[in-house]
Amino acid sequence: MSIDIKYFASLRDRLGRAEDRLDAATELTVAEVWAALWLDRPLPPNTLTAVNMEYAELTQRVRDGDEVAFFPPVTGG
Amino acid sequence: MSIDIKYFASLRDRLGRAEDRLDAATELTVAEVWAALWLDRPLPPNTLTAVNMEYAELTQRVRDGDEVAFFPPVTGG
Amino acid sequence: MKIELRDAPFDPLVELGRYQNTLTGLHGQYGATAIFIGTMRDFNDGATVQEMTLEHYPGMTERHLQRIVEAAAREWPLLDALVIHRVGALQPNDPIVLVAVWSAQRAAAFAACRLIMEELKAKAPFWKREETAAGPRWVAHNTPS
Amino acid sequence: MKIELRDAPFDPLVELGRYQNTLTGLHGQYGATAIFIGTMRDFNDGATVQEMTLEHYPGMTERHLQRIVEAAAREWPLLDALVIHRVGALQPNDPIVLVAVWSAQRAAAFAACRLIMEELKAKAPFWKREETAAGPRWVAHNTPS
């Protein structure tokens, strides 16, 4: 199972990269995707998550080919 | 004591004139100005009144040289 | 701050651009501009309207528009405001009123623009006469909002 | 209905005029146009801001703007709507966002314009990075309104 991961704005700057790819043997939740990539580094508070460009909960299941995004609170307008 | 009177919009059309002048021997209220000019014709319901271009109550006293206006509800904007 | 009555058609966007061009001293200060444009419709209250005449009370109208804008500026931190209102004969699709306010913050801009429009509708001495197929008629009252 | 991202400066009044010129089919129908223009300030949160960069999430941003406008149109009787939002590098006094809605009635126009702006600020994936004298910083969150 292959998952594309994107990071935006201050979170991307902090992590030092904009994208990741994760190959997982089992189905994961959004929280497990983060944990698989960043091990014991906790998800920063207030981080928002999206799956396939829709806001998602950390408990949402991710499927093969999904795009998962992590980003700070939005500040447009 | 001389008072200028103005009528606007539908009220002016109904009365058939836009202005009046009233010479009064004694001090009058706005209501008395109307009554002096129109005798037993009552002030139409919802008519607004102004003295010197400020909204006024019917009980407000009118002084020499004042301009009194009678008009229907406003419909601008 | 500018309040103006116009007896001929005007283009609200042109007026807005022209006025904003004079606000160079406020560049970088305003983050929010809230604008309302009222336009003549060709229908009202169940009838087709062919033409409209806007009457006003010269002197009193300007004074009350001024006061309405000043009251909004006391209630909200405004940087500037522009109000233009038509009088005279209007055709459908003609602009009737333009209200624009500039503020640092959107909450103030939105609220002040709305307040000015509601107060204008409630208190500024204007009267609309509509030409319909059944003849002319005066608009009896504004809808509260 | 049009939603657009722009990576270069735009003139909101020119865009508005151009778009409204395409709405000839609505002439006589709309009595109310409510417009909001967000402009870059040269100060924020206690510091002077020299430049700003607006990042977005290509695809997700457009989708959510579209959804926000559609939700407003379900809640209020709108005749049309236009949203333009900048991305990329901005200078103070550059327009950031334009929201315009056309309706028969002012209550709907005001409420929908406000709703679209609040939803855009709360949900559309954009992020502001400001250049200040102390170096660059990301804006942490939008002020609720």
For the record, the CATH class of chain C is Alpha Beta
Uncertain runs of chain C with pLDDT below 50, 5 residues or more?
none
According to CATH, the homologous superfamily of chain A is Beta-grasp domain
Cα-to-Cα separation, first versus last residue of chain A: 37 Å
Taken as a percent bin, the fraction of beta residues of chain A is 25-35%
The number of E-state strands of chain C comes to 9
Determine Rg of chain A (CA atoms, Å): 12 Å
Principal-axes geometry of chain C comes out as elongated
Count up the helices of chain A. Answer: 2
Distance N terminus to C terminus of chain C?
A: 25 Å
User: What count of domains describes the coordinates of chain C?
Assistant: 1
Shape of chain A: globular
Query: What is the averaged pLDDT score of chain C?
Result: 97
Question: CATH topology of chain A, what is it called?
Answer: Ubiquitin-like (UB roll)
Q: CATH H level of chain C: which superfamily?
A: Molybdopterin biosynthesis MoaE subunit
Write the layout of secondary structure elements.
The complex is a heterotetramer, with two copies of chain A (77 residues) and two copies of chain C (145 residues).
Chain A: E1 2-7, H1 9-15, E2 19-23, E3 28-29, H2 30-38, E4 48-51, E5 54-55, E6 61-62, E7 67-71
Parallel strand pairs in A: 1-7
Antiparallel strand pairs in A: 1-2, 3-6, 4-5, 4-7
Chain C: E1 2-6, H1 12-21, E2 32-39, E3 43-44, E4 47-56, H2 60-75, E5 78-86, E6 88-90, E7 95-103, H3 106-123, E8 126-132, E9 135-138
Parallel strand pairs in C: 1-5
Antiparallel strand pairs in C: 2-7, 3-4, 4-6, 4-8, 5-7, 8-9
Helix pairs in contact in C: 2-3
Pfam families (chains C, D): MoaE
GO molecular function (chains C, D): molybdopterin synthase activity
EC number (chains C, D): 2.8.1.12
Features:
heterotetramer, A: 77 residues, alpha+beta, Ubiquitin-like (UB roll), five-stranded mixed sheet, two-stranded antiparallel ribbon, 2 helices, 7 strands, C: 145 residues, Aldehyde Oxidoreductase, domain 3, five-stranded antiparallel sheet, four-stranded mixed sheet, 9 strands, elongated
